[in-house]
Records
---
Amino acid sequence: MPLVNPLSPDHDPQTKELAEFFNETLGFCPNSVLTMQHRPAISKAFINLNKAVMANEGRVTSALKRMIAWVSSNATGCRYCQAHAIRAAERYGAKQEQLDNIWEYRTHNAFSEAEKAALDFALAASQVPNTVNAYIKEELHKHWNDGEIVEMMGVISLFGYLNRWNDSMGTDIEDGAVESAEKYLGEVGWQKGKHDGSKY
């Protein structure tokens, strides 16, 4: 059982309306958001932040944003967020070869140098202690402008919040997220862990 159980999707009408966003990104409203409804101001603020962070205002594609989210979640070890990020990357058109080889993004030719720089940034920014350094900065600025780097940092920070939330809450993982995680991450050891509803 999770630390706190999610509430019904109908609990807060304003959250329900905002959460339609997740039907596009994931195909369902995440249990994390349903749990945030215990304090609706948090659920509503979170959804609005998510929408702002994931808006495309430069060359950082929706698919790349979700791959950034995956690298960030992998660095912190949140299996719930790993599954959600890989599912959203799939739904937003990440190349099949990228999805199949996300674990090896640094060396695989399915990823451009610009994408590798972005994903290296996600990894460095998600580690504790933080390892963003002059080299990461230089590589980022070879390929991306300031606004695009801000977009990336928004994704990394958003998932920092989600990684802490879902790993601490032991949020039950949804079937659709499990399906995507097993498809793309199962061969390299992904498991539900505490997110299967019975191991917390």
Note: The radius of gyration is 16 Å.
---
Amino acid sequence: MSRRLPTIHRITEHDAGPYRLERLDLEFANGERRHYERLHGRGHGAVVVVPLLDDDTVLLVREYAAGVHRYELGLVKGRIDAGETPLQAADRELKEEAGYGARSLTVLRALTLAPTYMSHQAHLVIARDLYPERLPGDEPEELEVVPWKLDALHELILREDFSEGRSIAALFIAREWLRTAPR
């Protein structure tokens, strides 16, 4: 079913650290008026990188996650800097976090975090034909690189230290894409 988007009567903005908080005065097609709040990032989006050592092995990184105060396994990820494309950001982040560059990079799609109240998007990038190369990054310590077989995703998603939704979704999307992608 296709619906007409609500009419925005007014937007009120507030500073919220790295985000801009907007309060929207909306009117729906049925006449209902409501206030919604959403967060807009101040940056240029982000990348989530699936680095494939080979078509059966992905490289994960273990890094400190302040939100849950523990070390988490996950994919390479990071902000897109001003003037960068998602492919350039993916290659840079891969070199900074995992110590590899990629000769082949493919953007599969954008992922949202919480689209009901947040505009942030992360571009899912597949990195293939890897070669060793390290760039200095902004992490306070070197990240541990952990190879993981894609046919063992069922074990990975049950681990307590692998909980980030973008990484989980990206790995399943990448696995499906690999089933039909040219080798």
Note: Residues 165-180 form the longest helix (16 residues).
---
Amino acid sequence: MYTIRKGEKADLPRVLELVMELAIYEKAPEQVSNTVAMMEADGFGENPVFGCFVAVKASTNEIIGISIYYYRYSTWKGRRLYLEDIVVTASERGNGAGKLLFDRTMLKCLEDKCTGMMWQVLDWNEPAINFYKKYGADLDSEWINCNLQAEEIKAILGEG
């Protein structure tokens, strides 16, 4: 029903559409400022900082899901694969594409000799939480996410 393959530059318009679909689901579409051009440079440029897999529906040849990942380094554990987003379009959820994408991403973790895989899930996203629980994932509620936007950093450092 679905084929999982490595994402290609030509896939990026659809990849970004799925990212936007996720942002709408997470009630934050106004926070998406990424563009296809940025994704081309960041994923397919001289020094790629992310990779992705796409789920293609066999009957339509349409990309219906994505897994976007990158590598991070833990001083305690070493090289880790970080799953930034896994998205399956609403009409295809529950048909196995998410499992295929997640399984392929886990395999990538092992292929690249990472010590493990990490990701986040919103505390209200029960379908995703239940999906990850099926894998026996450790859902850690102890850590608090922190971030600063580039404009905020510029202001703090007096660069703005």
Note: The longest strand covers residues 62-74.
---
Amino acid sequence: MPHTIVVYHSGYGHTQRLAQAVAEGAGAQSIAIDADGNLPEGGWEALQAAQAIIFGAPTYMGGPSWQFKKFADASSKPWFSQSWKDKLFAGFTCSASVNGDKQVTLDYFFHLAMQHGGLWVGLGHLPSNTKAAARNDANWIGTFSGAAAQAPADASAAEMFAGDLENGRILGQRVAQLAARLGA
């Protein structure tokens, strides 16, 4: 199976829980960006060796956390050498509001992947947007460009909606399936 990395920052544990669901779906290794915006030792090397990279961060103030942005800025070395070119990329995010401008964060990830010459993988799952839909259905939020989750500001990571975690697994599975199909 192609080697996939889920690289993410989580402020309060919700994005970490979503990252775990994404990694489970993809059979991927996870790398957490720490509270100072740094990768652990060996993190850059692992990303270099990966065939697919899935970005994750909470949406704060209409975009990804500053810790993720620090990581993105630090990716200028692989950008300059185009060493991430033609890798598969995808992304996921979580915020307290149902909308919460999560699409801006997913767009940020998309543009970062495009800067690196990557190939973007969207969610590929229809939204649950009928009268019969329930909050725990997969893709209840209705995103297409990545996986999105909503966790009320007063809810713990353990209280996340099952459908949002399923979105993460669906995204991870799709990245893994496409990577295998492309021989990435």
Note: Residues 126 and 139 are 7 Å apart (CA to CA).
